[in-house]
Write a structure and sequence with these properties.
Layout (H helix, E strand, L loop, with lengths): L1 H19 L9 E3 L10 E7 L6 H6 L7 E7 L4 E5 L10 E2 L2 E7 L5 E7 L4 E10 L2 E7 H12 L4 H6 L5 E12 L2 E11 L9 E11 L10 E10 L1
Antiparallel strand pairs: 1-2, 2-3, 3-4, 5-6, 6-7, 7-8, 8-9, 10-11, 11-12, 12-13
C-alpha cells in the first residue's frame, strides 16, 4: 500500500511541470520576438514591460508610448537579459503590416542593428556591439544616414523643391559585413513626403560606413567613418 502511494506521488510530481508550462504557467517578464534571433539562434530581441508581467492581454495594449516598455537583447539558451536597446518596439511579432522591427546580426553575433519601422519612415535605428556579454550602443544609424543622404542630395530637385524637413526618412536593408579586410555597415536611406502626389516627393540612397578602431585601440566600441553615399535615380 505504501509503495502505491509513493508511485502516485511521483506521478503527480512528474506531471506538475507540464501543467505549469501550459495554461497555468506564470506570465513571463519578457518575450523574444520571432524572426529576430542571431545567426546561431542563441540571442534575440525581446520586449518587456518594466514592473509588469507580459500577459496576452497586456501585449495587445502595448504601443511605443506605453510607460515602462523596453526592448532587450536576450540569451535564449540561458534565459538571461544581456542589455537594453534604445528601441521601443511593442509587439511580439516582428512585422505588423505598416509597422515592424528589423533586426540584423553580423557574423559572430558581435554586432546587431535594430530598426523600428512606422507607416511613414523609421522611428529609430541603432547599431550595438556586444562586449563581454553586455550591450553597448555604438551608433545612431538614423541620424548618421540622414546626414549623409542630405549632403549628397543638397542640390537635388527633391531637396531644392521641398526642403529636407518635408521627407519622412526610412532606414532599410541594413548589412553588417566584412569587405577588403575591414568591417562595414551599409544600409539604405530612403525619403518620402507622406501622402503626396507631388513630383520629386521620393528619394533613395545607399550609405556605407567603415568601423574605425583608431580612437579605441584598447577594444572599446569603434566609431563609424563615412565611406560613400550612392544616390539612386
Amino acid at each position: 500500500m505504501k509503495s502505491k502511494s509513493l508511485i502516485a506521488a511521483f506521478l503527480i510530481a512528474a506531471n506538475f511541470p507540464i501543467l505549469l508550462n501550459s495554461q497555468d504557467a506564470p506570465a513571463p517578464e519578457w518575450i523574444a520576438v520571432p524572426g529576430t534571433s542571431s545567426r546561431d539562434g542563441s540571442l534575440a530581441l525581446a520586449i518587456a514591460l518594466k514592473g509588469s508581467k507580459l500577459t496576452p492581454e497586456t501585449i495587445e495594449t502595448l504601443e511605443p508610448e506605453t510607460e515602462g516598455l523596453v526592448n532587450y537583447i536576450v540569451n535564449l539558451n540561458e534565459g538571461t537579459i544581456l542589455g537594453e536597446t534604445k528601441g521601443k518596439y511593442w509587439s511580439d511579432r516582428a512585422n505588423m503590416g505598416n509597422y515592424g522591427t528589423d533586426v540584423v546580426w553580423a557574423d559572430g553575433d558581435l554586432y546587431v542593428a535594430q530598426t523600428n519601422q512606422e507607416r511613414f519612415g523609421s522611428s529609430d535605428s541603432y547599431l550595438y556591439q556586444l562586449i563581454d556579454g553586455n550591450v553597448s550602443v555604438m551608433a545612431d544609424l538614423l541620424a548618421l544616414g540622414t546626414e549623409a543622404a542630405m549632403k549628397a542630395l543638397a542640390e537635388s530637385p527633391q531637396i531644392k523643391t521641398h526642403g529636407a524637413d518635408a521627407f519622412a526618412i526610412r532606414i532599410h536593408d541594413v548589412r553588417i559585413v566584412s569587405a577588403g579586410g575591414s568591417q562595414v555597415v551599409q544600409f539604405g536611406v530612403g525619403g518620402e513626403i507622406p501622402k503626396s502626389d507631388l513630383e520629386n516627393a521620393y528619394f533613395d540612397t545607399t550609405v556605407t560606413f567603415a568601423f574605425d578602431y583608431s580612437e579605441n585601440p584598447d577594444g572599446g566600441s569603434p566609431k563609424l567613418k563615412w565611406i560613400s553615399t550612392e544616390v539612386h535615380e
